[in-house]
Structure formats: C-alpha cells, structure tokens
Specification:
The complex is a heterodimer of chains A (294) and B (311).
Chain A: H1 2-11, H2 19-52, H3 56-59, H4 73-80, H5 82-115, H6 121-133, H7 136-149, H8 156-180, H9 184-192, H10 197-208, H11 210-225, H12 229-234, H13 242-251, H14 257-277, H15 282-286
Helix pairs in contact in A: 2-14, 4-14, 5-8, 5-11, 5-13, 6-8, 8-11, 9-10, 13-14
Chain B: H1 7-24, H2 26-53, H3 72-78, H4 83-113, H5 118-129, H6 136-147, H7 153-161, H8 169-172, H9 174-199, H10 203-211, H11 216-227, H12 229-244, H13 248-253, H14 265-275, H15 279-304
Classes of the chains: A mainly alpha (294), B mainly alpha (311).
C-alpha cells in the first residue's frame, strides 16, 4: 500500500492528499449525499404516518411534537367509515382480477413473441408499446361514452377492463424479455420426452419464468391501484376506488388532518410491502424488460 | 382418424382433431386474445376521439348530439378552452421534471454504485424506491400538509432556519412546486433503471479505463455513458411518455389552479369534457395531444433507435 502511495505521489506530485485519504474523502462525500437523499425520501413518509398517529390538535402543532404517544383513533374511525372500507376492498378485488386476466392474456402472447418467427415482429412490439403512449384521459372519453351506452357505467367489469388497458403492454414486453432469457434447450429437452409445445410451455417455461411473472404482476397491481382518473370518470358508487375516497376526503372543507393522513397511509401500506418484495426485479419490470440483470 | 367407423373412435378422432388444430395453430390461439384487446384499446379510442372531435357532443343539449360540425370543436379548443396555454404548461412541466429526475436519478445511482457494503447498498436501494409506492392522491395529501402556509412543516422550517420568508408554494410558485413534487415521486424510477444499467457495465471496460489513468468524469463521459446509451434512452423515453400521461397528482393537488397556472393538457381535457360537459371540444384537444405525443415518440425512436434494446 505504501509503495503504491509513493508511486502515486511521484506520478502526480500536484495531488495534496495520498490515495488513501482521497478514497476516504470520496467515501464520506458519497455517504453524505446518499444520506441526504434518504432523508428527503423518508421525511415526508414519516410525516404522513406520524400525523395519522396523533390526536387532531397535536397533528398540526408547530413547532411539531417530535416525541408523542401514538394513538390509533384515526384508524379506528377510518375502519368505521363504511364507504372507505367498501372502496378499499372493492379496489383490491377489481385490481386483483384485472391482474390475473391481464397475465392470462399477456403471458402466452409474450411467449409467442419470444419463440416464434412473427412477421414484422418489431412493428408488433412497437404497436403494443404505443398503447402505453395514449394518455389515459384521451382513452377514457370514448370509453365513457360507450360504457354509458352499454349500461356499463359504474360497473366493476368496466373498471377491470380499463385496468387491463394500462397494463397489457407492460406484461407483454417484460415477459417477452424474461422468456428470451430462458434457454430454448430447456423446452427442447421436454419435447424430446414427448411433451407438446403447449405442455412444455406450461410445465417447463412458466415455472422458470416465475420471478418475472411475480414481479410483473405486482408492478401491474401497483399501476392499477394508484390510478385516479378511471375512478373519477367511470364510477359513481358501486365500482368506486380507494383513490377516489381519499380524493373526496381532500375536498372536504373542514379537513380532518389526522383522518386524511390515516386514509392516505392505508392506501400506500399494501403497495409498500409489495414493492419491497420485488425490489430486485423492479428495474427489469419498470424498463419494460429492456434492462435485465442477472 | 384412419378407422373412424365406430362411434367411439369417431369421438376420439374429434378430440384428437381438436388437439391437432390446437397444436398446429398454437401461436395464433395464444396471440388472439392479446391482439383483440390491443385493437380495442389502440384503434378504438383514437378513432372515436377523432369522430367526437368532429361532431357536437354537449351533454347539456342532447338534441344536437352527433351533428357534424366540421372543425368548430378545434376552434373552441384553441380559443375558449385555452388549449395552447395548457400545451405550453405541459411541455414546461414535462421538460423540467424529466431533466431533474434524470440528473438526480443518475447521480444517486452512480454514488450508490460505488458503495461496497452489501447491507448498506440494500438499505439505500430499498429506501430510494419507496416514493414510487405512494399513490398520487396520497402524495397530494402529504404535499398539502407539509406545504400548507399555516400548519406546514416546510414553510415553518424555512422561516426558522433561514433568513428568508417562505413562499406560499401552491399559489406563488405552483408549477415549480408540482414539478418538484413529481421529482420526489419519480426520481426513483430513473434511479432504479440507471442503477441496473450501471451494474451491467462490464468490469473489464472500467478497469481498462482506469489503467489509462482517465479521471472519473472522463470515464463516465467516454466509457460508461456510451455503453449505457440504450438504457438511458429507454428510461427517458418511458418516463417522458408517463409525464405526458400525467393526471392524478396535479389534479388532486391543484386541480389546475390557481387560475390555469398548472392546467396540464390532461386536466384541460378533463375540465372541457366533464365540467363544461363538452366532449366534442375535449376530444378535439385529445386528438391534437395524441398526434403530438406519437410524433415526439416516433422521432425519438427513429433518431436514437432501439439498437442495443433489440437483440
């Protein structure tokens, strides 16, 4: 180490610090920036959660009460709010079904795009991606008109369909990338053993693509779960969403901050857990499968 | 198939014929549902928006609904509805947020890339992705609470810790404020993709550059960034598209206000269609918006290309 250092100083006499010191300074600077960003990220989340755990008067006290005894009355009140609870489980139901359906539609198509010679395959993929470029507001207006004509306004089936529209391109792209990464020899071996192409897809390819399917399912779930516009335009009561409930809380004139904070926290807790669960595959999922690590 | 004389064997032959058809045309069966859904969600909305934009569709006067009006809706859109303003606001918002998110995302990814301890690395990586889990309505709540000029912690801290008076964020600098809130929300997206991209740069390439004695910034400019070009391109393209699609956060935070200072095109279309119940004018703006977005995306895809993205 010492020889390396002196060589270093010989080569670059103008450098005032030894390599070791410089490395240490870099490390300190690096951690300082990372720590600041971590605080920027965590502070608003902490603020929201702590507000939901304070009684009304303390919630908006300035200077803030940094130390406080958490109370759960805001959550108890929220659990009593029938509309919120209904909207919460309604959204869980609609989003879950839509994710299952979008996987059933998208995963087999992705397999075909990965394994067969499709004419103009690149154009097909860009076409699929283009569905993701349409702004939801431009998509929702035609469907608003049609759903009203078909008596599908404010129905779960209409909402589930809309959730499928926002996630189908993601599922096809990400799963195609995952299938591309699975060696074809795997299924060829199964086919030699007498399995048909479809059987080898079910029994060999799908199990190997499990992490991909799992993470694309969760990312699709999140995109649908946080959606506000469709609930705003296409629902009224029956098919209402959890985001719509929080939105209506915001609109109330006499804002009950604690309750609003509790409702807002309830919306993100399930998603936080999911997100942490798939954090390893997030880059692959969010980049439409373009970036695949490992 | 060959001895389809008895009933049993003809039964068997039907099912085996079906199985044969299934296997023979397997790719078609597997693709059909996706293609049908895609047709419905790409061709139909665009075509129907175009139709709506050319007819009267004011829900307050149901008798005239469907009457052809030529380009009247487009004229309404760009005069009364202030479509042009909302396009300028949207482009400012998209450009500002995109630039800040890309820069912050890259800097954080590059800094984290040098962390050696696995535990520290995992900790930061998990913390940094958390904002993406926050629903737009929740983020609107957080922003309202924290930025509120009477009870908000951020104005309070600014006044306590600095000699400056805190701005009233959502009325003095509304567009900047929503941009910064979006930067908090979606910098993680850039971070996580860039980070994966950095990890895929081959170590040999980095070592070679280091042996050359190239300083860090030159290693980035001449070795790492060129190698990561496809990744950078994809992340920026996807994020840009999503910024153009933006609706939830700004709608629940400002509803386009004060005045129309944060009225993005999406919000303007919503207002025309559902507050002034004029779906014709709303569709006219939507058509122009669709053409603009698809043009921008196509230019980008053609210019930078998907080389490296497509194997």
């Amino acid at each position: 180490m010492a020889t390396a250092d002196s060589e270093e100083t010989l080569k670059h006499p103008e450098r005032r610090f030894s390599k070791d010191t410089r490395n240490r300074l870099t490390a300190i600077g690096r951690h300082a920036v990372l720590l600041v960003w971590a605080v920027v990220v965590l502070f608003p989340l902490y603020w929201l959660v702590s507000m939901s755990l304070k009684p009304a008067r303390e919630a908006i006290a300035l200077p803030p009460k940094w130390l406080f005894v958490p109370i759960f009355s805001n959550y108890a009140e929220l659990a009593q709010n029938g509309e919120f609870v209904y909207a919460f489980f309604n959204t869980v139901f609609m989003v879950s079904v839509s994710v299952i359906v979008v996987l059933l539609i998208g995963v087999p198509a992705a397999y075909v795009l990965s394994r067969y010679d499709i004419p103009r395959q690149r154009d097909v993929l860009v076409w699929i991606l283009s569905s993701r470029m349409l702004p939801p507001i431009a998509v929702v207006i035609p469907f608003f008109v049609i759903f009203r004509k078909l008596n599908l306004f404010d129905t779960r089936i209409a909402m589930m369909f809309m959730y499928i529209t926002i996630n189908i391109s993601l599922v096809v792209w990400v799963m195609k990338a995952f299938f591309d990464g699975i060696p074809e020899t795997l299924e060829e071996a199964a086919r030699v053993d007498g399995a048909s192409r479809f059987q080898s897809f079910l029994r060999v390819i799908l199990p190997s693509a499990k992490p991909g399917i799992f993470s694309v399912a969760i990312i699709s779930f999140i995109f649908a779960w946080i959606e506000l516009l469709f609930g705003l335009v296409l629902t009224n009561q029956t098919a209402t969403t959890v985001s719509m409930q929080v939105y209506q809380f915001i609109g109330v004139k006499q804002i009950e901050w604690g309750m609003l904070a509790a409702a807002s926290t309830a919306v993100i807790v399930p998603v936080l857990v999911f997100l942490i669960a798939v954090n390893k595959y997030l880059a692959a999922g969010l980049s439409f499968g373009v970036v695949i690590k490992e | 198939m060959m001895n389809a004389t008895t009933k049993e064997s003809s039964h068997a032959s039907v099912s085996s014929r079906l199985r044969e058809l299934w296997n023979q045309y397997l790719p078609y069966w597997l693709m059909t549902p996706m293609v049908l859904v895609m047709l419905v969600i790409t061709i139909f909305p665009g075509a129907y928006d175009l139709y709506l934009s050319l007819v009267k569709y004011k829900m307050t006067s149901p008798d005239t609904i469907g009457e052809f009006t030529g380009l009247t809706n487009y004229v309404t859109a760009f005069t009364e509805a202030g479509a042009l303003d909302s396009f300028v606001i949207t482009i400012t918002f998209v450009g500002g947020a995109l630039a800040l998110e890309a820069v912050f995302g890259f800097v954080i990814a590059a800094l984290l890339h040098g962390v050696e301890s696995d535990r520290t690395e995992t900790f930061y990586r998990v913390v940094f992705i958390l904002p993406m889990a926050v629903a737009p309505v929740t983020l609107a709540t957080i922003s309202r609470i924290m930025l509120n000029s009477e009870v908000g912690i951020i104005p309070y801290l600014i006044e306590q810790l600095t000699p400056f008076a805190a701005p009233v964020f959502l009325s003095d600098i509304p567009l900047l404020t929503v941009t910064l809130v979006d930067v908090w929300h979606w910098t993680p997206f850039m971070f996580i993709i860039f980070y994966a991209g950095l990890s895929s740069v081959p170590q040999t390439l980095l070592d070679a550059a280091r042996v050359d004695g190239a300083p860090l910034w030159r290693r980035y400019v001449h070795v790492i960034l060129p190698y990561m070009k496809p990744v950078l391109f994809v992340a920026i393209l996807i994020r840009m598209i999503d910024l153009f699609r933006h609706f939830g956060l700004v709608f629940s935070l400002t509803r386009g206000g004060p005045g129309t200072s944060t009225q993005l095109v999406s919000l303007n279309i919503y207002e025309q269609g559902f507050r002034f119940v004029d779906l014709g004018a709303a569709a006219a703006i939507a058509v122009v918006y669709l053409v603009l977005i698809i043009a921008i995306a196509n230019v980008l895809i053609a210019k930078v290309g998907f080389e490296g993205v497509w194997e």
